[in-house]
Structures are given as structure tokens and as C-alpha cells.
Specification:
The protein has one domain: TIM Barrel, CATH 3.20.20.80. It has 14 helices and 14 strands. The strands form four sheets. An eight-stranded parallel barrel has the order 1-2-7-10-11-12-13-14, surrounded by five helices. A two-stranded antiparallel sheet has the order 3-6. Strands 4-5 form a two-stranded antiparallel sheet. Helix 12 links the parallel strand 12 and strand 13. The longest helix has 25 residues. Bound molecules: zinc ion. Zinc ion binds next to helix 7.
Length: 387
Amino acid sequence: MFQTNMVGHLWDLVDEGLDSVLDCLQGRIGVTGVCTPVTSGPVRQLRYAAEVSPRIFQTRGGVFFQPDKTLYENTRCKPLLSEWLRTRNPLNRLSQTCRERGLELRAVVECVSLGRIAAHDPHFARKNVFGDVSPSQICLANTDVAEFIRALTVDVCTNYAIDAVELTGLDAMTPRTDDPHHDPGLGARQLLALCFCESCRQSAANAGVDVEAAARSTVVRLNTVFQTGQRIEPPLVALAGDDPPLTAFISWYRDRIAELLSSIRHACGCRVVSHTRPLGGEEEVATDAGYTRGADAVVCDYVGRETSDLKCLLERMGGMLAHQQRLEVQLSVTPPTGDDHQALVRNLTTVAESGIASANLDHYGRLPTACVDLVRQAVRFARRTSR
Ligand SMILES: [Zn+2]
């Protein structure tokens, strides 16, 4: 059966009342599962539900469940709780209630922008080629960080009734930078996002990569942007084709991500799903990206990418996965332009027609009451189409 999971933040479910939200999701809309973020970076969220307080929810981020401290003894990187949680542990009741109701529950782990860890301990932070330490992102190639993420997934999967863990932020060359207001082009953003922290430099050099040459090449390319003002649009994999040290460095990093993914899969015993935000350019999609290797399924995150053709995107993404891997999709539950109310019905039908069997809807806290019936219609159409 076609699976539909509603993304629901714990604060939205708790403040509105868990049972009444799940009654709406399961009884009225007909979703088959819930995805709940168990870690995140800073959040400022305007909430749509009636009479919730605060109207704008804010947290500096962190971990949204009480961690089992014994699982983090092998890493110096420790979980930092979101201040919102205090001594409560709503993930416990959510997981039990979903199990009783026959709803699938997925735990979403944001792996890179994870609360205050980078600011709290810069030793674990990403560092760009110029030596700037990220205030918000941690380096997944750091062995302490990798062990921390592994322990975190084991924690949620063994201590709660979780059916799948969804990992976000694993893209080896994330196009995100710490300056969201300036866009020097996709390739330049990816060059800036490459981590040259001490841990990365040392491990890559030990693996035989000429890190100094890769760093020099990165600096030269970025300095050209700064001097000429010309953006670098092609994705990094296309740029690095004629640059063996840079290619080797990227490939080394991707291998670390693939290793992390496979260690999580072996350790946590439930389905492992990796998120990706598709970028521009055929090359990016076609390459053997570390964040897909070893995952049971890959979620193509279409939220914010609504200008690209969904059908083409799904075909390209499907082509890059291994035979046994499933492709899934994440769609915005509200119309991206505000007035195209049939967008969700159309997109979810396209997903089902493409032979995809699972979609996440993002997210319950931004679902206007007036759109509930439309979402139910979209879910029903998709289920009928997929038969
Ligand atoms: Zn690093």
C-alpha cells in the first residue's frame, strides 16, 4: 500500500495534544506514518494550529529525547539537550501511541546542524579552507562526531518503538554555507562547504590524499570568484574532473560518509533512510554519492525545489540508486506559491505514477485547517493510483 508519512515536530504534537493530532492525521487524512525530528539545528517556527502557545516556537536546537548516557561513552562528542525538553521525554509516549495505533514512526536525525555542539566545542566543527570555524555545523569525518551520530541512532532505535531512522545532512558536499544571504554559485558554495578541519586534513593525508594540493586548488578557485565576482555554477564534481587531488579529497570524504551510513545500518537494526536535496546539473545526480551508499531508501527532498520538474527529477534520482534501494519523496504539505492548492494532489499523484511507494509530507505544524480535506484527497488519489 502507498505509504504517507506526516512530518510532525514534537512540540506541535505535544502542545496541540498527541491524541487529537493523531486522530486528525490517521482518521481524517489517512496517513500511515509519522516522521518526527529527534535532533535539529536552531528553529524559529510560526505555528498555524489554533490556540497554541508560543505562536512562534523557538529553540537553539539539540537532541529532543533523554539520551541514554551509557551509549556515548566511546565518544568525546556528547548530546546536548534542547532547552525546550527539560526533564520531559515526549518521544516515549509518541512512539508507544504510534505502535498501539499501527502507525509507522520514523525518527529524523539532522546530522550536521545539530544544536549547539559546534559552538560549544569548536573541535568538532566544520572548518572551511580559509580556516573559518562553522558556528553551527559539525564535521562528520571527525571520528568522535561519527561515533556520536552512530550512538544517537542506536539510542533512538533501541529505546523507542521506531520503524525507520531518516538521516539528513549527509550529502558529502552540502551546498549550504554559513552565509545564507550570499550565493556565489553552486560550485563555489560546495567548495566553501568542503571541510579542511585538522581531523579531515590528517585522516585524508594518512589515506594518501594530497590534501595540501586539494586545499591550494580550492583557494585558487574561490579567490577567482572574489576577484572577478563571477559565480561558479557547475557542481563541484564537474569542476574537479581535471583536478586529481581535489577529486581524491572529495572521494575520501564521501567514503567517510558511506562508512558512517553503513555503521549506522549495522548498529541500529531498523531501516535506514538517507535524505538528499537534489541539486542542479546531471553530473551531481549521476555520481556515486556517499550519502546513498548502503541506505535502504533515499528520500528526494522536493521542498523548496518546486521549480524543477518532479517527474524528471524522480527519473534521474531513480537511475542513480542501487537495485535494491527504494526512492521516496518529501513534499511540502502547503502550496509553495500560496494559491496553487492542487499542487499537492498533482505532485503526490505524479509520485505514485512513478512507481514510488512512500512520501513524506512536510509538515503538520504548517498545515492550515482549511487544507486538511485537500491533503486527504491527495493521499486518497495517490493510494488509488499506486494500486
Ligand atoms: Zn572536517
